[in-house]
Structure formats: structure tokens, C-alpha cells
Design goal:
Layout lengths: L14 H15 L1 H9 L7 H24 L13
């Protein structure tokens, strides 16, 4: 979807003001937000990939708990600070 935005110089208007008016029109048309949305688009992960990641996290937590019980790993204080 192409959007043409045109600004004509008014009588006695400085080029800086003309550029400012153009920028406002571009911003109002939502072009910048749409382009940024396209640029930084991250595809949604598949259900299988999410499940695999969750299983890996669970497995890693279990390993850490086992190492703590065996005394091979020192338990860290919980993060977050005061609340």
C-alpha cells in the first residue's frame, strides 16, 4: 500500500519549516510505524520449538537442583531485590 505525501512550499516559508510539515504528515500517516513493524518483525515460533525449549529448561533446572543437593554447586540468592 503506497502512500504519497506531498508538501508544497508556502509563501515566505523557510525550508526547515517545510521539512517539519512534511515530517508531521509522514508521522500522521503512520508510515514510520508500519515500516518499523516490517523491519523488526519476528516470526512466531512453532509449537514444537516452544515445547522443545520448555523441556530443555525443565531438564536444566532439574540438573541444577541435583548438583545443589550433591554439594557441587552453590545455591545463589534469588534475584529481584526488595519488593
Amino acid at each position: 500500500m503506497a502512500v504519497n505525501i506531498e508538501v508544497e512550499r508556502q509563501e515566505g516559508e523557510s525550508p526547515v519549516n517545510m521539512i517539519r510539515r512534511f515530517s508531521k504528515r509522514v508521522q500522521g500517516a503512520g508510515i514510520i510505524n508500519r515500516i518499523r513493524g516490517i523491519r523488526y518483525y519476528a516470526r512466531k515460533k512453532s509449537k514444537f520449538v516452544e515445547q522443545k525449549k520448555a523441556l530443555k529448561t525443565i531438564r536444566r533446572r532439574e540438573e541444577v537442583q541435583e548438583l545443589i543437593k550433591l554439594g557441587k554447586l552453590i545455591e545463589k540468592a534469588p534475584r529481584g531485590g526488595r519488593r
